[in-house]
Amino acid sequence: AFQEDRNHRFSLVHDWQWSPELYWSTKLTYMNEYLGYMQSGIKSLAESNIVNFNSKIKFDGIVNHTIGVTVRYENGELKDDVNPLFESFFPKRTTSALYYNGTVVKDKTTFSLSLRQELIGRDVQTPTGQFAIKYDQSEKLNFTLNVGRHYSYPGFNDLYWPNGGNPDLSTEKSWQVEGGVSFHGLIVKLYKIYTT
Question: What is the phi-psi region of residue 88: left when phi exceeds 0, alpha when psi lies from -120 to 50, beta otherwise?
Answer without folding.
Answer: beta
